[in-house]
Amino acid sequence: xxxxxxxxxxxxxxxxxxxxxxxxxxxxxxxxxxxxxxxxxxxxxxxxxxxxxxxxxxxxxxxxxxxxxxxxxxxxxxxxxx
Length: 82
What we know:
Layout: H1 2-12, H2 34-48, H3 54-58, H4 65-81
Helix pairs in contact: 1-2
């Protein structure tokens, strides 16, 4: 899942570290806006061959790197078993 971290760090010019932990809310911290969010969703869907529902995209599910990783892992696992 390091591809996700790399994408976020490169796309939004941030670096996750002690002062900016992986559970930081990317919207509240001013790192990501709605345009960046769309780019992130596109990247995740293409990179991991998954799809997000409207509810997942609009409900605070994908606001931190931790939440994004957990959601992607769950979707990849569900696709593999489904």
